[in-house]
Amino acid sequence: MLFLHLLPGILVLVIGFILYKWPPRHINWLWGFRTHYSMRDIENWQEGNRYYAKLLLLIGLVSALISLICYRLLPLLISLLLPIGIMIIFFMLSIYLTNEHLKRKFGKW
I need a surface site. Which of 77, 79, 83, 98 has the fewest CB within 10 A? Predict the structure, then answer.
C-alpha cells in the first residue's frame, strides 16, 4: 500500500526530471510547459520549461513526503485522496508561478 501512496509523487518527480534533463527544443503543442505566454517566443519557451521542471521536482518531493506522512497518520481512503488534492493545488500554483516568473523576466505581453 505504501507504493500506491508514493506513486503520484514519484511520477511527478520522473516527469520533472525528464523535462529538466531533456527539455523540448522547439515550441510545440505536445510536450512542455504550454501557455500562451510561454509559447510567445523561444526564450520564453526555454525559460518556462526550465523553471517549470524545477517546480515539478519540488512538487514531486513534497507530494511524496506528504503521502508518506498521510500513510502513517490517516485512514486509507483519506490518506490516498488528501495528497492528490494537495498535488492538484500545487500544479495550479506552479502554472501561476511559472507565468509570473516569465512576466518578471521578460516583461508583460
Answer: 77
User: Which residue reads 498521510 in cell numbers?
Assistant: 70
The whole-angstrom separation of Cα 32 and Cα 50 is 10
The ranges assigned to domains in the chain are: 2-24+34-106
Cell numbers 500545487: residue: 90
Q: Say what the pTM is.
A: 0.90
Q: In which residue are the cell numbers 526564450 written?
A: 43
- Residue 70's CB is within 10 A of a number of other CB atoms, namely 19
Q: What is the pLDDT of residues 39-85, one digit of tens each?
A: 999 999 999 999 999 999 999 999 999 999 999 999 988 988 999 99
